[in-house]
Structure formats: structure tokens, C-alpha cells
């Protein structure tokens, strides 16, 4: 509990250990990410190659987009379990639209719109009925997946359109398209959270909903918007995934909601709301991606990867807690 | 009598202190909050710990209770002469240190009993299951001792702030303490409860318990304390027997300069007082709500401050909350500027120019993990935004001016509100509502936990706002405040308005008579 780092840094002289300690306090999760990269650069062949790095970014891009939406939901003190299912429904619907001969942009937009609609319904029920978000989105987790099966008949639908495929599998200047999409989403989200009234109201609602209401903040409307944005981003993720898989699959996106939640928490956002940053979330996403990629390069099988991933999530959050306590 | 008291004080000096602290220093992220402070506590004494908001009183006592640790080489606590260092609050508690915290720390979804007995071992049967009957009985005993008629089975979330404070006190009394710290225990209590509390304090004194008493209410200090210690800006200033000081002297020690007594409003300049006819800004006609408020009618005129007095539970807070759209009306009509309006949410109220400083700053007012500046401007972000995008430059400038105007003591406007002292937190909430420049200002215990200097400032500010034409309705449980500031006083009892007193005719006795009329 005592601020030992503080007293140490006041002493004259330079110590590697102290410098590291200071860095650790300031950077936290970034340090864990760097540490992971250093370890993997020795143990995993070709880990640091540009091609592999781009591959990591491409692989995390969809989870990253979902996690951006999840961040604002969790900042309000809520949770959105429906994003993985929404990825599937959005993929199925947009590919079907494309197969029906609709303009590819309109087809992709329809996927995004479906996601928005799912989010709108989540938001409406969470805000108006005061049901816990966990329950509301557990419901949509199930019915949205169901709809994806019903509409697709349970089979993947093949994507023909090249423009659509480009969004998921193409590249501009050698960099995969999904990476641009991810970057765009994070820049916009950073701006929203830091510089807009809506963004500040998100923090206020998460910090103290009662006080927010008494301050005249439109709590219900803000909540509806937050869930709608999360749904919209899940829809976008579904379109990108369909473009990458060249098909709309009703089984797509399973467990994505849990990966997104894990990334948000790794990024330091408090599950009780009101505290956290979007910059943290991207670090969390990268930590998860780097572990998965590194283990694959090291030929660790997928089952063991899950075991390691789970352990790392808990360990990283634990380390971060320790840091938070010593800094206080 | 006085001689006896003095004798006892002399005896104190001869006795060894049960606990003393020496050379205590505490630094929070490079801000020094306490610097070399000390205190000596003797058995059977009430020791008044005095100081302005942010002087460091609560921090000092949190160190005593094991919640904070002093800096390295930052002093020593001695229990019966032996140096000690608490590992954690539980250890301090086991050694007989009990605290009533300034901020309420209750679990809202548990019963009163569970909250009172939290931290002690619940009676269990042979299967290891809790014997709830006995738990409730134990809690009932403590409540009876306090003369409280609360039902131990009730959930804390259903209680008013004052009732919660009673539970907090009961918790501290539920186990036998040698040192009892009371950090502003009376901040939201009315005279009736305070009297009971003082009776209890008297009993504890006789049992040899040593009590640290923190309060900004001067009358209380001189009624119950034996000795005092004054802190200013984290420094120890003075200690001594209470007979060697007087209110003016104490204030001078606390503030470091001479300060006039309680603020007294000049001859009010509102139209009503000057015999002019003016239209009311706000009028209530036969308002009832679903809980306690019954058939309340009142008018508020521009430029006047109306005090709303009454006992805890009289329905004052409920009335104001219904008026602000927090709770629903059952019947009645609200008129703003002569026109009937529907107020169904705080948003409607704010749109009609009504502002509301709620009674509980932590639960209803503050965004604890956000910065001071955002807390101040949260209701007015719109004014400092263009198409939804906040101009931080404007926000910073506006926040700075309120911080200066209300003299809020902070390290920087970016500081988290949770780190401010209680009184400064209160000023942040008030600043927020001044920022919307309302026509009607509803104040629910606006100076709860605020020191004398700041209290005077807040009264001056409110008075100045009234001068400029704002109508103010102020709830306060502190009668001197009501009497000093109001142009007109309404008294409530059991949900009804039982009387109105003009500034000239009002006295504490008359108010208390009207407030207890239902009983
Ligand atoms: N955890 C913390 N981190 C940083 N600063 C703190 C922290 N706790 C308290 N402070 C600062 O220490 C100072 C003293 O605070 P404290 O709460 O002890 O004052 P106080 O005398 O109890 O005031 P009040 O009468 O308003 O309750 C304040 O300036 C406050 O901002
Ligand atoms: Mg205090």
C-alpha cells in the first residue's frame, strides 16, 4: 500500500531496476505486450518479420473492432454478449444480399445495418426496462444466432463478389484492408470518448448513473446509442469476416464476445464502469493476438493455446492490479 | 460545575494518554497533506479535532484507524505508551479503535442488522448457519440504546441519508471501543437525533471511552468537548482544554485570521420585502407524492431565499425531489412563471430553469473517478460544445473561474474528485448548479460538512444569486443557518407544511414547535 516506488525515485543515483519500475508504473500493460514480444522474438521463429506482424494485425482486426464497441458498453457499466452472434447474422445477410445481385456496397451496408438494429434492441431493453444488460444480451446472443441459422438454412453461403471480398481479404499498399478499418474505428472512438459530449456522458453514466440522471444527462438515450454502436461495429466485423472467409457462415464469430471482453479488461477498463480508455483496449487486443500468433509459430496445438491464453489473461490482470495498488 | 470540569481536565493531564500520535506526516503523490501533526487522547474525554475543509482531519484519523499508513519516518502511533503500526483497519479495530466515517460506507442491499454487525462474527447454530433472529436482536439492542425506532430487518437502500447516518453510528457503537472517532456524525442529523447522540457520548465518556469529535458546528463543540486540537493546512496549530478558548478564538486558529461570525443576510432586497407586487417564479398547488408529501402548496418569488425546516423524515427532501422530477407526483400542479408545466424528469426541470443540489453528494452528486473540472461542468457541457464536440479550452476556463469563485481547495482541476476533502466535494456540486444559471435553485443541505469560512462563502454566494433575482428554496437541518439566511421560513412536519414564519418573527423555538406539531 505504501508508495514505495515514490520514495525510491526520490533517492539520487540511477538504477536499472528503478527505471524499469518507473516505466512499469507508467506503462503497465504496454510493458507486458513488449515483454511478450521480446520473449516470442527468441522462441518463435520469424515472429518479428514484417509479414508476420501484419498477419497478427490482420488476425486481431475483427476482435479489435468488436472490442472497441465493447469498451464503451463496459464503460457504462454494462456488457454486450451478443456481438459474436451478430457477426454471424451480419455475414449471412450481407452475403445473401450480395448473391441476390445487390450492389456490393449496399450489401455490406445491410450487414452493418442489421448489427445496428440488434444493438438498438439491446439498448432499448437495457435502458427502458432496467433489465440487467447481461440478461438482455444473453437473450440476443441466443436469438440472433438462431436467426443466422434460420436465414441461412444452416449452411455457409458462398460469396462471389470481388469488391466484397476485397474488404476482408484485400490489401492496399501491401497492408491488408481490415487493418485500415480497425485503425479508422479506433481513431474515431478515441475522438468520441475524449472530445464529444456523448463520450463524456458515457463516463459519467458509468461512474454514477444516479448522479448523471440528476445532472440532466439523457441517460436512456445515451445507453441506447452505446449499445447501437456496439451492434453496428459487430455488424461491420461480420462483413469483414465474411469478406475474408469468402462466405457468410451461421457458425461464424463464436466466442468472439468473450475475446472482446477479455481484451477490454486486459486494457484496464473497469467492469463496474466509469474507468478505462480505448487505447488500453487496443493493447489488450494485441496481447491476445500476439500470444495466439506466437504459440502457432511455436507449433503449439490449438487446444493448448486456449489453456495458455486463459492463464495469461488472469495473470496479466493480476499483475496490473498489483501495479495499481502500489501506485496508489 | 465548571470547577469539576476543570478538575477533571487536570486529572487528564496527570493520567497517561490511552493513545497518542506524534510527528505524523502523510504525502499523497507528492502533495503533503499532513506535516508533523500530533494528538493526545485521554480516557473519558471528548477531543474536538478542528480545521477548515481540507485541513487534513479525516486523513489524520484514517491513519489512526489503519486505513492510511504514514509516510516513511512519518511519525508514530502509541497505544498506552507502546509504539504500534497497524497492518490494516481490522487490526486497529481489534485493538479497540472504532470509526464513524464522514462518508457513509454502508451496503445498500443488506439489512440494517447486517450493516451494523458487519465485521463481527455472526451468531451461528450447530450447522454453522447464521441465527438471524439473534443477529436482529443484537442490532435491535444497539438501536434501542440510541433511542432509534428503525427496524433492523429493513434494507439500508430504503433509508434516508439521516437514517443511514444513524446506522453508521450504530455500527461504530456495536462493539466496545476504547477510542471512538466521530467524523462529522451530525452533518445530516436534526436537533432531536443530535440530542440522543450527545446522551450516548455522555455515557461513553463515563465508561472511559476516549472520543475524537470532528464537526464544523461550533455550538456542538462547546457543548460536549473537553479538549481541542486545531489543524491548518496539514499542520498542527494548537491543542488545549476547551475552557481556554472560545468560538472566535478557535475560528481564528483554524483560519489563521479574524473571521466574522455566521453569515447574516443584509436587509433583503427582493420585491416582496419591499412591498412590491411580483409574480411568483415557482408555484406549487396541492402537491402530493406517492410517499409522504401531502397537499403542499407554496410560492417562490424572484429574489428571495426560503428556508425549509423540519425534522428528519418530515418530507422536505421528498418534496424537493418530486419538484425536480426525480420522483413522480400523485396529484397537484406545478407552475413556472405562471404557466402550468409537466416535470417528469430532471431534464424537464432543468429546461424550466430549476437546479437542485441533492443531499448526498457521493451517491447523487459526484462522478467520483472523474476530474474536478468535468464534475463542475457536466450539466453544462452543451454550452461549451459545438455540434457535440467539447471545447476543453472553454471547459478549463469556466472550471477555473468557479474554482476561484467558490475557493475550492484542490491540487489541480484535473484532480479526481474522490481525493478532495468532504467540504470541497460539496463545493464542486454547488458549482455545477451555479453553472447552469438557474431561475430557481433547490438546495438540500447545501453546507453539509462545509467549514465555517466556506459556509459563509456559500451563504454569500446564494445571497448574491438571490439579489440578482434567483429564487432559492433551501433545506437545512441547522437552525442557525436557516435563521441567518432565509427571508421566509416554511416548516414541514409529516409531509405537510405546518407553518410559515417571516424572517423577523422566526426563532428556533417557534420553528421547533411547528416541526414537532404532529407529535
Ligand atoms: N487519497 C488522496 N489522494 C490525494 N489527496 C488526498 C487524498 N485524500 C485526501 N487528500 C487531500 O488531503 C487534504 C486533506 O483532506 P481531508 O479529507 O483529510 O480534509 P478534512 O480536514 O477532513 O476536510 P473536511 O472538513 O472537508 O472533511 C485535501 O486537500 C485532500 O484533497
Ligand atoms: Mg473530513
UniProtKB/TrEMBL annotation, chain A:
The chain crosses the membrane at residues 27-48, 60-93, 105-125, 132-151, 171-193, 223-246, 252-271, 278-296, 302-319. One of its GO terms (cellular component) is plasma membrane. Keywords: Cell membrane, Membrane, Transmembrane, Transmembrane helix. It is found in: Cell membrane. Its main location: membrane. GO terms for molecular function: transmembrane transporter activity. It holds the Pfam family BPD_transp_2. It is a multi-pass membrane protein. This is Ribose transport system permease protein. The lineage of its organism: Bacteria, Bacillati, Bacillota, Bacilli, Bacillales.
TrEMBL record, chain B:
GO terms for cellular component: plasma membrane. Coiled coil: none annotated. Keywords: ATP-binding, Cell membrane, Membrane, Nucleotide-binding, Repeat, Sugar transport, Translocase, Transport. It is a peripheral membrane protein. It is found in: Cell inner membrane; Cell membrane. GO terms for molecular function: ATP binding; ATP hydrolysis activity. GO terms for biological process: monosaccharide transmembrane transport. PROSITE patterns: ABC_TRANSPORTER_1 (PS00211), ABC_TRANSPORTER_2 (PS50893). It comes from the Bacteria. The keyword Nucleotide-binding applies. The keyword Membrane applies. Residues 19-258, 276-519 form the ABC transporter domain. InterPro entries: AAA+_ATPase, ABC_carbohydrate_import_ATPase, ABC_transporter-like_ATP-bd, ABC_transporter-like_CS, P-loop_NTPase. It holds the Pfam family ABC_tran. This is Ribose transport system ATP-binding protein.
Amino acid at each position: 500500500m505504501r508508495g514505495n516506488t515514490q520514495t525510491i525515485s526520490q533517492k539520487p543515483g540511477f538504477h536499472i531496476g528503478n527505471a524499469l519500475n518507473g516505466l512499469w508504473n507508467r506503462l503497465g500493460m504496454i510493458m507486458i505486450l513488449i515483454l511478450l514480444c521480446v520473449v516470442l522474438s527468441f522462441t518463435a521463429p520469424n515472429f518479428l518479420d514484417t509479414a508476420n506482424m501484419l498477419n497478427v494485425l490482420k488476425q486481431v482486426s475483427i476482435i479489435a473492432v468488436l472490442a472497441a464497441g465493447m469498451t464503451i458498453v463496459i464503460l457504462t457499466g454494462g456488457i454486450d454478449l451478443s456481438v459474436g452472434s451478430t457477426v454471424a447474422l451480419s455475414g449471412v445477410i450481407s452475403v445473401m444480399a450480395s448473391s441476390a445481385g445487390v450492389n456490393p456496397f449496399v450489401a455490406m451496408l445491410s450487414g452493418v445495418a442489421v448489427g445496428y438494429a440488434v444493438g438498438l434492441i439491446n439498448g432499448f431493453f437495457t435502458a427502458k426496462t432496467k433489465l440487467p444488460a447481461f440478461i438482455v444480451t444473453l437473450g440476443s446472443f441466443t436469438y440472433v444466432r438462431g436467426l443466422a441459422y434460420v436465414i441461412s438454412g444452416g449452411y455457409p453461403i458462398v460469396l462471389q463478389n470481388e469488391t466484397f471480398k476485397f474488404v476482408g481479404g484485400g490489401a492496399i499498399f501491401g497492408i491488408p484492408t481490415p487493418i485500415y478499418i480497425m485503425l479508422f474505428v479506433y481513431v474515431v472512438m478515441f475522438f468520441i470518448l475524449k472530445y464529444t459530449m456523448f463520450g463524456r456522458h458515457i463516463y459519467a453514466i458509468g461512474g454514477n448513473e444516479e448522479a448523471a440522471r440528476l445532472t440532466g444527462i439523457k441517460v436512456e438515450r445515451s445507453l441506447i446509442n452505446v449499445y447501437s454502436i456496439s451492434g453496428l461495429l459487430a455488424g461491420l466485423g461480420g462483413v469483414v469476416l465474411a469478406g475474408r472467409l469468402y462466405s457468410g457462415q451461421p457458425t461464424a464469430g463464436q466466442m468472439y464476445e468473450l475475446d472482446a471482453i477479455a481484451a477490454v479488461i486486459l486494457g484496464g477498463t473497469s467492469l463496474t464502469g466509469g474507468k478505462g480508455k480505448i487505447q488500453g483496449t487496443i493493447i489488450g487486443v494485441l496481447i491476445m493476438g500476439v500470444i495466439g500468433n506466437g504459440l502457432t509459430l511455436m507449433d503449439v496445438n490449438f487446444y493448448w493455446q486456449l489453456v495458455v491464453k486463459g492463464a495469461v489473461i488472469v495473470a496479466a490482470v493480476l499483475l496490473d492490479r498489483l501495479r495499481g495498488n502500489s501506485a496508489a | 460545575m465548571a470547577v469539576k470540569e476543570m478538575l477533571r481536565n487536570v486529572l487528564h493531564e496527570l493520567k497517561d494518554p490511552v493513545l497518542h500520535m506524534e510527528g505524523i506526516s502523510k504525502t499523497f503523490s507528492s502533495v503533503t497533506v499532513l506535516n508533523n501533526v500530533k494528538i493526545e487522547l485521554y480516557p473519558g474525554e471528548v477531543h474536538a479535532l478542528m480545521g477548515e475543509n481540507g485541513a487534513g482531519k479525516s486523513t489524520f484519523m484514517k491513519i489512526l484507524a489503519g486505513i492510511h499508513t504514514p509516510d516513511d519516518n512519518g511519525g508514530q502511533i502509541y497505544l498506552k505508551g507502546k509504539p504500534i503500526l497497524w497492518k490494516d483497519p481490522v487490526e486497529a479495530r481489534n485493538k479497540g479503535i472504532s470509526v464513524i466515517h464522514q462518508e457513509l460506507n454502508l451496503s445498500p442491499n443488506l439489512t440494517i442488522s447486517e450493516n451494523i454487525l458487519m465485521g463481527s462474527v455472526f451468531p451461528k447454530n450447530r450447522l454453522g448457519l447464521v441465527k438471524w433472529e439473534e443477529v436482529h436482536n443484537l442490532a435491535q439492542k444497539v438501536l434501542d440504546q440510541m433511542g432509534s425506532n428503525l427496524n433492523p430487518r429493513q434494507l439500508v437502500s430504503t433509508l434516508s441519508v439521516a437514517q443511514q447516518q444513524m446506522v453508521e453510528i450504530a455500527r461504530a457503537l456495536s462493539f466496545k471501543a476504547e477510542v471512538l472517532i466521530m467524523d462529522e456524525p451530525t452533518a445530516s442529523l436534526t436537533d432531536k437525533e443530535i440530542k440522543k447522540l450527545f446522551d450516548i457520548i455522555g455515557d461513553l465518556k463515563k465508561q472511559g471511552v476516549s472520543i475524537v469529535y470532528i464537526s464544523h458546528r461550533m455550538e456542538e463543540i462547546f457543548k460536549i468537548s473537553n479538549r481541542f486540537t486545531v489543524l491548518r493546512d496539514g499542520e498542527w496549530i494548537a491543542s488545549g482544554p476547551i475552557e481556554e478558548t472560545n468560538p472566535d478564538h478557535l475560528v481564528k486558529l483554524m483560519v489563521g485570521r479574524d473571521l466574522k461570525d455566521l453569515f447574516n443576510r443584509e436587509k433583503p432586497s427582493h420585491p416582496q420585502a419591499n412591498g412590491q407586487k411580483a409574480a411568483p417564479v415557482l408555484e406549487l398547488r396541492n402537491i402530493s407524492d406517492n410517499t409522504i408529501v401531502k397537499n403542499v402548496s407554496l410560492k417562490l418569488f424572484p429574489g428571495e431565499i426560503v428556508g425549509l425546516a423540519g425534522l428528519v423524515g418530515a418530507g422536505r427532501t421528498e418534496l424537493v425531489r418530486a419538484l425536480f422530477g426525480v420522483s413522480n407526483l400523485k396529484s397537484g400542479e406545478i407552475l413556472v412563471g405562471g404557466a402550468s408545466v409537466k416535470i417528469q424528469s430532471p431534464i424537464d426541470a432543468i429546461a424550466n430553469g430549476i437546479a437542485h443540489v441533492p443531499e448526498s453528494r457521493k451517491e447523487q452528486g459526484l462522478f467520483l473517478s472523474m476530474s474536478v473540472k468535468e464534475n463542475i461542468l457536466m450539466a453544462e457541457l452543451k454550452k461549451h460544445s459545438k455540434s457535440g464536440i467539447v471545447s476543453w479550452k472553454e471547459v478549463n476556463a469556466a472550471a477555473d473561474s468557479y474554482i476561484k469563485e467558490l475557493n475550492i481547495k484542490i491540487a489541480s482541476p484535473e484532480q479526481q474528485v474522490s481525493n478532495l476533502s468532504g467540504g470541497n466535494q460539496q463545493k464542486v456540486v454547488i458549482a455545477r448548479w451555479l453553472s447552469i444559471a438557474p431561475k430557481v435553485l433547490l438546495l438540500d443541505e447545501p453546507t453539509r460538512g462545509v467549514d465555517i469560512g466556506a459556509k459563509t462563502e456559500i451563504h454569500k454566494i446564494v445571497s448574491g444569486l438571490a439579489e440578482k433575482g434567483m429564487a432559492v428554496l433551501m433545506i437545512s437541518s441547522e437552525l442557525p443557518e436557516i435563521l441567518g439566511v432565509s427571508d421566509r421560513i416554511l416548516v414541514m412536519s409529516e409531509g405537510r407544511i405546518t407553518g410559515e414564519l417571516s424572517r423577523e418573527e422566526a426563532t428556533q423555538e417557534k420553528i421547533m414547535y411547528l416541526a414537532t406539531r404532529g407529535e
